[in-house]
Amino acid sequence: MSSLSTNQPTPSRFSRLWNSNMGYSFRRNPVAIVSLAIFLIIAIASTLAPVLAPFDPYDPAQIDIMNSEYPPMWVDGADPQFFLGTDDQGRDLWSTILYGTRLSLLIGLCAVALQAFLGISIGLVAGYVGGRIDSLLMRLADIQLSFSTLMVAIIFLAVTQAMFGSETFNQYAIYFLIAVIGVAEWPQYARTVRATVLAEKKKEYIDSARVLGFGPIRIMVRHILPNSLSPIFVISTVQVANAIISEASLSFLGLGMPPSQPSLGSLISSGFDYIFSGSWWITAIPGVVLVVLVLVINLLGDWMRDVLNPKLYKG
Q: How far apart are CA 284 and CA 272, in angstroms?
């Protein structure tokens, strides 16, 4: 008697995600679909800036000051080779926005990665060890939260610029921005992870792990941390938007990226002096890109928060 094989192909990870509650919620949420589509378009276009940009804003040989302040194509007096016009230095605005968006996204993602590393590490140690270490770390978090990110960043970057000089500061500006934005926001992660650790470390599976001889680091990383991933994902989404806004604000104040390495914030800042003289596009177009980018990231964060919170998710 022959038996029929009923082996079914193992569904891929994407297939499992697509058919999960999160995938189902995503398919039924047009705001999330549109937000993700816009974010992917912006992210992919900025990543492919060297391919899509007709000019390299970092190459002085491709910049002619005589081409400065050309309006966009739909305004009288435009130059056909500059689709979105040019800035005050004669750089093609479309190319500069692509490179600037890539730089802003890079700073935002790296700053959030630093925030997450510091906050998760401190939260795990504070919640698992407890006692005086927990009290000390949480008091440090309270002190950090009492100061706004922008104020800490302004003080740090101003002192750094005075110590190293403008030339050195401009050369390493991206690293200074990532460091100060990352260090300023770690308490958000620390408090969330600590709360999860306090709830999980008293459960039976943690006691079983201790009986089996697992060390504290393995228990924290392999057993407790996975239970914190849902809120960490939500926080990270919102924090990327906040980091991009912080970078743009600091660049607008002259404490961020230099004009030779344009980000969205430095582009808005460079055109601010010309907005009332008729060259509104130098500030307005990068400003619209920044607003749209931050908006879609926040909308995705709101959707993810609703889906990952069982008290809010209704299917």
A: 9
Which of 274, 271, 291 is closest to 283 using CA atoms? 271
| Domain residue spans of the chain | 29-308
Token pair listed for 311: 């008290």
Quickly list DSSP for 184-195: HTHHHHHHHHHH
CA–CA separation, 144 and 86 (whole Å): 41
Entry pTM? 0.82
Cα–Cα dist 127/119, whole Å: 12
Cβ partners under 8 Å of residue 240, min gap 6? 108, 109, 112, 297
Residue 283 and residue 234 in contact, taking contact as beta carbons nearer than 8 Å: no
- pLDDT tens profile 185-210: 888 888 888 888 888 877 777 778 77
CATH architecture of the domain formed by 29-308: Orthogonal Bundle (1.10)
> What is the mean pLDDT for each group of 10 consecutive residues in the chain (315 residues)?
50 63 76 90 90 83 78 80 82 88 90 91 86 88 82 83 80 86 87 86 78 80 80 85 86 77 80 76 87 90 76 49
Could you tell me if 146 and 218 are in contact, meaning their C-beta atoms sit under 8 angstroms apart? no
Return the closest-CA partner of residue 308 out of 193, 203, 229, 224.
229
At residue 68, the 3 state secondary structure works out as coil
